[in-house]
Structures are given as C-alpha cells and as structure tokens.
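We modelled the chain as a single entity of 264 amino acids. Its sequence is:
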Amino acid sequence: MVIASGLHNIMTAAARKAARALNRDFGEVENLLVSKKGPADFVTAADRMAEEILVEELSESRPGYGFLLEEGGEIKGTDPSHRFIIDPLDGTSNFMHAIPHFAISIALERNGELVSGVIYDPSRDEMFRAEKGKGAFLNDRRLRVSVRTTMETALLATGIPFMGRPGHAQFLKELHKVSQQVAGVRRFGSAALDLAWLAAGRYDGYWERNLQLWDIAAGIVLVREAGGTVSDITGKKPLDGTSILAGNEVIYESLKAELKQVAP
C-alpha cells in the first residue's frame, strides 16, 4: 500500500468531500434535462458549492495559503509563497448533460512552481495524485506514461473550441493533419482527465488551445511525475493555459513536429 503525504491527505480529503456534493447534484441533473428551464443554473450552483467546500477544507488545513479559482478568481493569502489552483468541476458541459465524465482538480503552487496535483473522478472513484519528486499514482497504483513510440499506434486526446471561443479554423487544420498519422483522436470534454489519463498510459499524447491554468495545473504535475513531457504547443514555457502539448517523450516530439507544420 502506498502511503500518501500529509499534503495529499489534505487535498484528497477535500476533493472527496466536494465530490459528495457533486455526486448528489449529478443525480438530479437527469431529471432537469426535460424541464423547461433546463439544468444550466443548477449546474452553475453545484460548481460554486463544490468550490466553496474546497476552499473551506483547504483553508482549515493550510491557513494563509492563497487560491486561484475558476469561479472565485484569485484570493490572496497571508503566505505569498503558496497558492492552491482549483477547478471544482472540470467537464461542466458533460455534467450538465448527465454524462459521467468530469473531475475535481486541485494543484498546489509553491514559489511559482507547481509541486502537487490531485484530480478526482467521482463517477469512477479514481483519485489521481502526484507530488514533485515522489511519483504519480492512481489510488494506490504507481503511474507511468505509455511506452508506445509510433504515431501509427498512438491514441491522442484533444479539445474542440466551443461556441464563443476562438480557434475553430486552426483546430480543424491541426485535427486534419494529426488524425491522418495516428490510431485515433478522442475528445471527452475534460482537460484534467485528459492529462490524468495520459499519466496513466491510457492516452499517448494530448494537445489543446485556449485553456486556463486551473484546467491543467494538477494534470501537469501528474504527467511530469509519470515520466511524461509537458509544454505549450510550441515547446516553450511557462505553461499558462494558452496552449498545452503533452505525451510520452517520443510521441510528444512527434506530435509537436506535426503541429508545427500547421502552426498559425
């Protein structure tokens, strides 16, 4: 049995408590799908409630730490060297349509460096966690990125820009280029789980544009600690959510080369 650190015990406990509220609300979404008003307002409230639970739980255990929140923005702490980066419900559209593919994402930044990440999938009860220098884990199992080395055998993940977001034409160019080289491309609607599944070896590579830091912060730690490579699409740093490219070392380089050929 793998013993989690004190920090991970705090982060995973907070994620599980928020997940109980999300699971309860998820059970109500299907009933709302056929209502005249629809589930949008209900899901927004569920998102905010989960965020409040996470902030409350983490603040109790780590008073003074700051927060960067999807819903609540930035909260300055008395300890300027530490900041939790939280997405309380990654995969909101899935949740809204009663699709059980969503996650809670919590990362810890220390002096500007991402050092710990937890991604919890309540529907499957899968707790992904990683800490700098200590490896990545799914529940109690050690994670490593896949060992596939050819694009022909690679399964990739990506995200499609949705209504109101820029980049549709660029995405179609990239998808057309990449999809001709690989075994398949998946779009499941949660950047956090895309990165967690990459760390677990389920995907071999992943790319996406126009994200936010809270979408990817925990996943970055997971992929790195599972032996993968992460950068923006051009291969540069720092990672701020503008774009992301990740994979095992070989597929990462191959995917970067393919995307470079259709760069904007």
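As a brief sanity check on the tokenised model: The chain has a mean pLDDT of 94. The CA atoms of residues 107 and 117 lie 4 Å apart.
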